[in-house]
């Protein structure tokens, strides 16, 4: 039934495809991008019910005024703009470290680690599914923690913990032939690494 399980992810896309036409466009999009105040008022009434929503419309108008004075830059203009240099550096560093943090290697080699941990062959796909579920749950947890601690703390902490876990994982994989319990410790570290990735980066 694994093909059905993989295909089930398309169910949420199908639900979105069917239900999205029933929802109104964003009021700020209708007013700022389209310049249609009446459609904006209709969308606000549909989202928030009847009532006086002039304060919200005024806020959107202020946002429109603020965006009107800013110029939309092309990609090359963003790269050349000196005032955006540091933001660009930070963005490139975050995206690069996200790709090179080791999560893909963990997913790729986790099957081998589970196999050497003497898990039954039929159990390994379920343990792998548990790793994915672990990432999903930790990402949900991250959305609650980010308001409390901020992005910077979660990024620094996540990468620091991931480095520590990878160092321990390297050690346990090296010593797995000497101690029988190292296999299980490696499995725990894989789950811990995925939790650190989900909460941090």
UniProtKB/TrEMBL annotation:
The UniProt entry, under SUPFAM superfamilies, shows: MFS general substrate transporter (SSF103473)
- Check the record and name the InterPro entries matching this protein: GLUT, MFS_dom, MFS_sugar_transport-like, MFS_trans_sf
Compartments, as annotated in UniProt: Membrane
Q: How does it sit in the membrane?
A: Multi-pass membrane protein
Keywords from UniProt, A to Z, are: Membrane, Signal, Transmembrane, Transmembrane helix
Locate the transmembrane regions by residue number.
Answer: 6-24, 88-111, 123-146, 153-175, 181-200
Protein name listed in UniProt: GTR11 protein
Supply the gene name: Slc2a11_0
UniProt organism field: Pheucticus melanocephalus (Black-headed grosbeak)
Stretches assigned to the Major facilitator superfamily (MFS) profile domain:
1-201
